[in-house]
Amino acid sequence: MATPPLVPRKVPRELLQHGDIRVDNYYWLHDDFRSNPNVLAYLRDENHYTTTIISGINASCNATHYPFP
Hints:
GO terms for molecular function: serine-type endopeptidase activity. By secondary structure, the protein is an alpha+beta fold. The protein has one helix spanning about 35-65; strands at about 15, 20-25. The longest helix is centred in the C-terminal third of the chain and has 27 residues, at about 35-65.
């Protein structure tokens, strides 16, 4: 069974620029200093998911003798 992809939580934030308001549901992921524990935890989970998926692809490629870079 395939591992379902991660879905980041939505935290609406209104941003005002040039007199227009827009909502960015993923603004919480903005972390220039790489210090927000919630962002770091999400990125660790996302990296783990990617590694898991890629390892399955690598195994398939090795089984058919096509190397995956």
